[in-house]
């Protein structure tokens, strides 16, 4: 991909890195991203691989609370989340994944920062996620995000193994108070419009 081509993309698609050979774009997902998101989730061997249909629906209905990263026009990673219906100032981050080939270069952190920036501008002030106790990479990633917001991860029990029907590990809840500007109720994102 040439730089010119990247710069001709829509304003919502922002190039964030241009090394000599690669161009990285962080943007909202489109329905066509459902298939590569499902593939990356399956290939991670860590995430719960939901049905391919779930990822297609996610890209259609929760695109304003999700982002994908493209490297040279290939989907390289994603963050998918939603605003909690009971607390619409809270972004729940459901899954984060980066294709094996693109790990260790700050892509997950960049996607999280972009998504948090997007939703914070609409009044979101808290991020929640769940992490299984053995997922050190995930914990490190969210701890780093918390540090960038001048805070620490708050942990509480959410789902324990007996809650699951299939031998699933615990999913502990982690909360981050985001540094955001003052906001009003009306600024909350509405995914249904
Ligand atoms: C977790 C994952 C998304 C990280 O992607 P990435 O692009 O390599 O992460 P980044 O390079 O942006 O690193 C973000 C932070 O996490 C840390 N980190 C990333 N992978 C790590 C690992 N395997 N072990 C320890 N720390 C790790 C980084 O050091 C960095 O922290 P820092 O800013 O303090 O240096 C990726 O490893 C992945 O897809 N894993 C499988 C799916 C998964 O577990 N998702 C998270 C749960 S939803």
From TrEMBL:
N-acetyltransferase domain ranges (all copies): 24-171
Keyword Nucleotide-binding: no
Keywords: Acyltransferase, Transferase
Pfam families with a match to the protein in the record: Acetyltransf_1
GO BP: any one term: ectoine biosynthetic process
Pathway listed: Amine and polyamine biosynthesis; ectoine biosynthesis; L-ectoine from L-aspartate 4-semialdehyde: step 2/3
Molecular functions per Gene Ontology: diaminobutyrate acetyltransferase activity
EC class of the enzyme, as a word: transferase
Known EC number: 2.3.1.178
Family the entry assigns: Belongs to the acetyltransferase family. EctA subfamily.
NCBIfam families: ectoine_EctA (TIGR02406)
The protein's name in its UniProt record: L-2,4-diaminobutyric acid acetyltransferase
Source organism: Nocardia aurantia
High-level lineage: Bacteria, Bacillati, Actinomycetota, Actinomycetes, Mycobacteriales
Encoding gene, per UniProt annotation: ectA
């Amino acid at each position: 991909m040439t730089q010119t081509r990247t710069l001709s993309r829509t304003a919502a698609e922002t190039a964030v890195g241009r090394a000599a050979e690669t161009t990285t774009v962080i943007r909202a997902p489109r329905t066509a991203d459902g298939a590569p998101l499902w593939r990356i989730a399956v290939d991670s061997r860590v995430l719960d691989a939901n049905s391919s249909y779930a990822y297609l629906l996610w890209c259609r209905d929760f695109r304003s609370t999700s982002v994908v990263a493209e490297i040279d026009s290939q989907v390289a990673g994603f963050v998918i989340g939603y605003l909690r219906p009971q607390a619409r100032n809270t972004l729940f981050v459901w899954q984060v994944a980066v294709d094996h080939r693109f790990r260790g270069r700050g892509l997950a952190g960049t996607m999280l920062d972009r998504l948090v920036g997007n939703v914070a501008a609409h009044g979101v002030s808290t991020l929640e996620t769940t992490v299984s106790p053995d997922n050190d990479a995930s914990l490190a990633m969210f701890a780093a995000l918390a540090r960038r917001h001048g805070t620490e991860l708050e942990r509480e029990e959410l789902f324990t193994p007996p809650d699951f029907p299939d031998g699933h590990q615990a999913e502990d809840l982690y909360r981050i108070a985001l540094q955001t500007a003052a906001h009003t109720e009306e600024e909350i994102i509405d995914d249904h419009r």
